[in-house]
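A quick word before the example. In earlier lectures we treated sequence and structure as two separate objects. From today on, think of them as two lines of the same record. Here is Glycerate kinase written that way.
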Amino acid sequence: MNPWIGIGLALLALFLGGALLGVYGVIFAVTGIVFWLLLQMSRLMRLMRVAGAAPMGSVVNAVMLSSKLHAGMKLVDLIKLTGSLGVKAGEETFVWRDAGGDAVEVVLRKGKLAEWRLVRADGAPATP
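And the structure line, produced from the sequence above:
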């Protein structure tokens, strides 16, 4: 979801709560906003716990991972897709490998997927 939509909804809830119920409405709106933020934090912590428990830079199938990637994908979605954290190979480059030796090199800029490349273990050219 676009962050501006979330901010707008939070401000709308505060305004309507204050206009309709006064101080109690504002308190109710703040309670809802804090609850929503706690849900998001819990979701992120669960994702990081699962990714941290897996071997670093491992993925089940690098070819399938490469086919599911698209430009603009957020880092959180990438970690959810791979199930593990990537191995840092450069300033903005991370690598995930499968058991067969195939690898996917991913370049992230500002937390979003900018480009990726499939590296085959047998040296065969990878087709995007």
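Notice the following. The domain at 62-119 is CATH 3.30.1450.10 (Beta-lactamase Inhibitory Protein; Chain:B, domain 1). We will return to this example when we discuss secondary structure assignment.
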